[in-house]
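Please, structure for the following, as tokens.
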Amino acid sequence: MRCLCRSPGVSLAEPIPAVLACVSFFPFPTNHGDAVRRLMLLEALASVTDLTVVAVRREDTTDEDVDSLRAILGGARVEVFSRDSRSQHRLLDLARR
């Protein structure tokens, strides 16, 4: 665990927990309520944890959307997968780490 301080009142001596957030679809573009809610949840988690996000790419998700999410989440690791078998193998490799 890395010791980071992202929230006011959190001591530098307290380790920040590592969190893996798995979402069933990518939160960008924010063109419906579910995407907005997922984005807000990820922002809240990123503000108090060492966050890794695993998300399923939507048909309308662009590489710019992925870069935007990384920037919004302040350097959180973001892994995006398609719904194909090759991506499922990548996901299994990530889970084994």
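The mean pLDDT is 83. The two ends are 15 Å apart (CA to CA).
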